[in-house]
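Homework-ish question, so no full write-ups if that breaks the rules, but can someone show me the predicted structure for this set?
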Amino acid sequence: MKWLQKSKPIKLLSVLVLCLVAVFSMTACGQTNNNQPEAGNEGQGSKLSGSIEIDGSSTVYPITEAVAEEFMTKNPNVMVTVGVSGTGGGFKRFIKGETDINDASRPIKDSEAQEAKDNGIEYVPMTVAYDGITVVVNKDNNWVDKLTVEELKKIWEPGSSVKKWSDIRSNWPDEEIKLYGPGTDSGTFDYFTEEICGEEGASRSDYMASEDDNQLVQGVAGDKYALGYFGYAYYSENTDKLKAVAIDNGEGAIEPTMETINNGSYVPLSRPIFIYVSKKSLKRPEVKEFVKFYMENASRLSREVGYVNAPNSVYQENLSKIN
Amino acid sequence: MNRQVDSATLSGGKLMNRQEEMFTPRLKSRQLRNAIFKWIFFGANVVGLLALVLLLGDVVRDSWGWLDWDFITSFPSRFPEKAGIKAALFGTIWLMVITALVAIPVGVATAVFLEEYARKNRFYAAIQTNISNLAGVPSIVYGILGLTIFVRWMMLGRSILAGGLTMALLILPIIIVAAQESLRSIPNSWRHASLALGATRWQTIRYVVLPASLPGILTGVILALSRAIGETAPLIPVGALTFIMTVPKDFMDPFTVLPIQIYNWTSRPQDEFRCIAAAGIIVLLIVLLSMNATAIFLRNKYQKKVVE
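A: Not a homework solution, just the prediction itself:
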């Protein structure tokens, strides 16, 4: 019995030691690897250091990620982190002063602005790109040439009576229309309902909803009688499977393309997306340099990740705000 | 052979008849039922196995050619071919170590108290019901709790420590319930024997009850950690990031984890991102399997010891 008593604690001890070793080896690993980029970029010489905290919309995330990636290869001592708590979740942190920059797919709400004011947080909103909400149908759909805003409203408004394509225009097929759209947590949903149905959140609810835009793409691509809407980037990556519908706002039908979204003629479904920068953070050189870098490169980088860049004048105007 | 059977039937003919009157063996139908149930149980296995094979096949096919050493050692990037999983991989390992170091001791200690010390009164029943119910609470609720308690109130900030503590809370009920079941399965005669030899209650727990129940406890730990490693919902309110170019160096560092990185990649418009998401899933599976293998190794080791 006595030997048993002695051997057990040793066993437990060895397990604990193993755990500690694991933690230490991870720490060591992290440090060595962490030094690599710094060593690799020696000579490019940047005195900036510190960290920049960004949170917010997952729609804006790809652009901010691209900018952060580029910025950190040039300024390896600045640590930029980006979260995706959503526009609203990000603003909750931003107006408490917890983050330096918030990615936003909609302008700040009055209630959020008020709370920011109460907390003494001042900010600069900046447009970084445009996102065109695209109405899509199946590739084999040969009857839809365009839709007017009224027709879209008729289809999507709460309590809509549209069940078949022929309910929209009588010469369209007498087949059931299958609707696909984003779920209610999405900024795209908020924007679409406000622009088309006249009130944010006002939508019929008997459609296939998904927060994952790729599922909507699959849904519309697999059903001849489907109609759906989502962000332009998801259409531009899938032009071989989908057909974008031109939207008529009373001034002729406009198809969503890089050009029409960029020059503002694709109305009303093109929306600006923003970053909100805290004025207090802007006083730090690394944040100021980051925002400057953002505006100088947003045009190229937003296109690279599938968004539509804003006109150059917008970026110039943003740059003038920080100087 | 034939002759023997014949003579046996002849001599015992009367006896057989009498037996048949009292008891009908219905051999045919019983054997048929036996076979049917065997196939039902086998079929149940096939359902799970088939789903797993299809899932794995799909993931492996998607990730083919994307999973290489560069993928493991690179940080996230907007270019799928340059993007890697390093920050998330290290984040997950750190998070699991913290979660295990907190949840296992606390969970087992709670179970020991409830089973070995606590009187079985109303208070006990109330705690018991609560623990079972906590196991079914949606994980996002733990995230909000973690944000309030660990991030804001205890001022841990959006650190990996806050994330690990939140995860530990999430899996505590699972560990407690599994450990309790395991402790209950130890016959009381063992405890009595130990106490009769003059051992204190603590000595009994330490040298008799815990070693014998360790295999069951470890099974619970495997289930609990497997759940924690795949969770994203509770970590997002606590502040797990998506883009980060460093790995955690101490408990207060910001972090991200594999499932968050994977989820972000699956929701991107470009097809290539879904391939690296699949590669990320394979990495996650490998981490999960090696973690469980460690627990299973420990379990087998102690199982043998008890048999001796």
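Now go work out the reasoning yourself. Hint: The mean pLDDT of chain B is 87.
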